[in-house]
């Protein structure tokens, strides 16, 4: 087990210890000072901060190549970008889970097709109300499927203020404690020939067309876009990493052939890939 994997496990254990101390403090009179309850939480975040720096979590870590890896786009059709590394890194606010250069994509087939955020009502929407739901997700390079994790249900959207607060204050914390699988939801990891690993997160349950160990070609359909894990609405979460385990991997910068890296809010079109000639 790597030092970073051990640190992530310790991080979650310390969080559980903090919650246990809170419960004990509420139900009983334990006799320890109130401030000591927060020590496990302080240690947890101090540990993860140190490990991120020591293990090269920052984009300027020694030995990291600043050159992006060129791959094909993971989708076809008309999409727009959210949380793009073209605007900031880490794009999702943290280096954890290999997300330094991650990007989110939402389908924009035509104006108004994608339901917008609402303050109060409707509280949540069904996944099928969003045009991204069920859209094919494509292999960005020739490679081998090293992870194909299915089984988590596609949940309702979190696109109202109450639902978003629930995600941030309750659901997100529970998923963090449960581990990376509950954060990325159903997911697939593709190992490319150059040694980089492409992660596709929040995949639709039951949509996988490949299994672990399968060899795939660039442009091949791997699965379909869903709304599993720590997700507000159906979207494609894509990132490149230097290892297959998001718990221990570091993010790798990418660029998509013919597109580059779209900025936040940028709408772009990806044509259907040309099928490879049979060998």
TrEMBL record:
Keywords from the UniProt entry: Membrane, Transmembrane, Transmembrane helix
InterPro entries per the UniProt record, alphabetical: Cell_wall_metabolism_enzyme, Dup_hybrid_motif, M23ase_b-sheet_dom
Membrane-spanning intervals of the chain: 9-28
Domain of life: Bacteria
Keyword Nucleotide-binding: no
Domain M23ase beta-sheet core: 172-242
PANTHER family associated with the record: MUREIN HYDROLASE ACTIVATOR ENVC (PTHR21666:SF270), PEPTIDASE-RELATED (PTHR21666)
Protein name in UniProt: M23 family metallopeptidase
Taxonomic source organism: Streptomyces violaceolatus
Organismal lineage: Bacteria, Bacillati, Actinomycetota, Actinomycetes, Kitasatosporales
